[in-house]
User: Fold this.
Amino acid sequence: MNTPHLTAALNLAYRGVPVLPLRAGKVPFGNCPACRDNSCGGRPNMKTPGPCTCSRPCHGWAAATVNSAVVNSPDWATAWRQAEAVAFCPGEAGVTVVDLDHADAITWARRTLPTTRTVATTRGEHWIYRGAMQSANAVRPGVDIKSTMSYARWLGPGTGTMTLLPDAVRALIVKKPSPVRPVTAPVPAGGGECRHRSPAYLERGIAMAEQRITEAASAVHATVYRTFLAVLSAHGRCGCLTDAHAARLFTAAQTKGESPRHCADAWTNARTALGM
Assistant:
């Protein structure tokens, strides 16, 4: 039997809007046991092959799909029975949601941004523009940007005509690079000196890892994880890998659209996989 949320999701998927269920607290369903802590490497989305073959909606925004057969599959049935809302991936739908969380944020938007389609939320409004961009939270008080690699609750079609994503919204995420979480690599008993690799070898390895991430045309999340895994496997135990090296890798990943949180999670998962 279809639940109201499943019915709404199927209607959206039919219209080409990638959807996923949200559980209590209006958050995505967590990883299943096989994908716990993204140890499977994550999944780019439900439309292209990825390192994870799990068919459940357990990878947050990356599970969003327009495939009605997947949405209505037995693997998703339990999630829909427990769901409290429907979400969609704005970037995959070709739009950007400016999430205005309170009255002051709405006032700022009305003074600053071009009018566009508006959807009422519990505490504020969603302003929806045509065009995708990098997502970012807290770009100013009470304002989040939800587009690529993100999700937003579906609260109805809204009112007004959707207009083109303005430069004023894109400019909101232009800021200094996000800080990289410090990384402490285990140091061997020999004082930390690498006995089998030269400094030049490490430098080449980091440069090649940066290049691999930068040149990724798809499956960026999986590529970042696999690259982190390779770097840590080669250099993570000898004590030569520094915060500066990690920062270079994180910067390359964030330039491709990965969030600081995704970078930190991928790094942690890679270390865990290697028993570090």
User: Anything to note?
Assistant: Residues 199-214 form the longest helix (16 residues).
